[in-house]
């Protein structure tokens, strides 16, 4: 996500980084898209907020988290009951293709903001029938 000035995080003006990925569900009959939902797993205290890896350790930024939203502005869910729909894109010969688009940005998480390493990891989980 690059380097961001602490003043931009404090003021809420840190730039969003957009990302997109596609999921191909193989072995399905063409033109029969299933309802596909997605939710995420990671070190979090609330939907849409991802805590930094190794938070509280020397050299790691403080007072910072990563805010995550889908392309509609919905905070990313970190539990199955809040899973959101993925967008069906197209049928292929042996697969249905879905797309997810979202954004991430550094945001204040409370307390004094101090510079440092600001990495985090999350996993996406697909829910379909």
UniProtKB/TrEMBL annotation:
BP GO terms, sorted: cell adhesion involved in single-species biofilm formation
Protein family: Belongs to the fimbrial protein family.
Sorted UniProt keywords: Fimbrium, Signal
Domain Fimbrial-type adhesion: 1-128
Any single GO CC term annotated in Swiss-Prot or TrEMBL for this entry: pilus
Organism: Pseudomonas chlororaphis subsp. aureofaciens
Coiled coil: none
Xref: Pfam families: Fimbrial
Protein name (database record): Fimbrial-type adhesion domain-containing protein
Main location: other
Cellular localization per UniProt: Fimbrium
């Amino acid at each position: 996500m690059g380097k961001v000035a602490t003043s931009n995080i404090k003021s809420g003006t840190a730039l969003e980084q957009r990302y997109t990925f596609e999921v191909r569900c193989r072995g399905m009959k063409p033109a029969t898209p299933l309802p596909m939902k997605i939710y995420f797993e990671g070190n979090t205290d609330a939907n849409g907020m991802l805590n930094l890896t190794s938070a509280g350790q020397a050299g790691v930024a403080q007072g910072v988290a990563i805010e995550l939203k889908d392309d509609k502005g919905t905070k990313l869910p970190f539990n199955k009951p809040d899973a959101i729909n993925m967008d069906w894109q197209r049928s292929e010969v042996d697969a249905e293709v879905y797309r997810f688009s979202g954004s991430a940005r550094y945001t204040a998480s409370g307390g004094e903001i101090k510079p440092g390493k600001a990495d985090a990891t999350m996993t996406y989980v697909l829910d379909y029938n």
